[in-house]
Structure formats: structure tokens, C-alpha cells
Amino acid sequence: MSTEILEVRRRWARLGTGADLAAMRSLFDQEGEGLGMPSGVLVQRTIVASRPAEWLAPSAAGPAVILYLHGGGYMSGSLTSYRHLAAEFARGANARALLLEYRLAPEHVFPAALDDALAAYRKLLEEENVSADRIAFVGDSAGGNLVLATLLAAREQGLPMPACAVCLSPWTDYEANGESMRTKASVDPVITREGALHGAQVYFSGADPDRPPVAILHADLSGLPPLLIQVGSHEVLLDDSIRLAARAGHHEVETTLEVWPEMPHVFQFFYPILRQGRDAIARATEFITRHTAG
User: Active-site residue among 76, 78, 141, 169?
Assistant: First the structure.
């Protein structure tokens, strides 16, 4: 295992050891901010549905737009912690990115984050006048879950589907029944089965876990746009991605699943120090560019 992978594992483990929620959120922000920003990306603050958000615009940005929905188990993550990653996706795809700081649990439980994400998509369509076929959704971990839930909610409300969606290590099984919860427990540096169950209990409090858009793995995914799923082989959520890909394929959704050997959860977050993170983002942004080209 390379020194870069070991360093990423060390940093992830540190982020998972916060004494309390406030400490975990602070550590997450410090880590993301410390990774720096790609050059040539302009940051512009905005408000979406009363929530803080940022436009991240490379100098060479074309007409495509990325809606980035960050991870953090629905309990952490912010503009500060994810600005660098959303900006790199924008730079790689030559697109503007809208990074949304949706409401977090336990202060705000389901469907708060979903309502915020859906409002952001409506803003792009109705206020920014961006054509759906120029929009890509990107999300990691809980944000990958939110990408899928937003797609399902948009479909049910009769909104046009975006051109494509990218899910990085998406969280799809709230009952934590995947085999990888057991087989990958010893190599995952940040997520445990107990932690995943706790996060589901906190955010989805009072919601029916067997009904969409909560129950992604039980949902009819028909009509969703092309999906790219990237996941590491060293994470307990590996089977969440594998079963998502199978479910999407069953419902005739064009789906690409990439399993990256020895990679931990959302390894793309650490792209400034990890070659595989940069390579994965390059593949994802090529996917976005191809599908948003019109």
C-alpha cells in the first residue's frame, strides 16, 4: 500500500474520531479547507432556498452546470469542507458547479436535505434557465444518496431528468445489510456498521425506510439518467454501490460501476494528495462532459 493511500487512511480515521458532532464538523471543515483549491476557479456566494450556496466557475466554463451535493452522513459537510472537490469537478468538466449547503441533522431531519436539493434543481431549471440536458448531478456518500433521492422526487413531480449523475461511494442501504459491512470492516478506516445505522436513525427519523425516495434499493429507478458509480474496494459501503448498479440495470438505466482497488470511502476527496483520486475525477468529468455536450 502506497504512502499516499496510508496518509489518506490516516486522515479519514482522524475525521472519524471527533469527540462530538461539533468537533467532527469542525475537523471536516479544517481538512477540506486545508487541501486547497484548484487554480483558476472563481467562487461566488449565493443563496438557494434560504440556504448558503456557492457558484464555482472555471475561466473556461461552458454551458454545462454541475449540482454538487456533499457527503457527511447528513450530519456534517459544508461549503468549507467540500469547496475544493466541487471546484475540481467544475474545472475538469469545464462547467460551473453549484455547491449547496443543505440543512443537516439532527437539527433538521428528512426530508429537509431533499427539499433543499430539489429547490436547487428547480432554481437551475426555472431561474437560471439551464436546460436539463446541460445539468449533471454529483454527490458523495450521503450526498450520493441525496442525488438519487432528488432524481426520484424530480421524476415524481414531472421535472425533466438531468443529463447524467455521478455517485461517489453512495450510501443506499440504511439497514446496513450488505455483505461488505462484514467483509470490509477491518479495512475501512472511517465508517462502521454501527455508525451507518446511527446516521440512518438520526436523519430518517419518522420516515418509512421501505418507501422511496428513502428506500433507494427498493425503488423503481426507471427513467433515471445515465449513472456513473465510483466506489473503493476498502469500504463497508462497497455493496451499497454494487446493489445500486444491479438495481439500476434491472430498470434499464445506463449504468457504469467502477470499483477502485485499495481505495477507502470517497477517496476523491483527497485528490490533491492521491493519484487515484485525480484519476477517478478525470474519468467522472469525462463522463459528465460527454453527456452534457448536447
Answer: 141
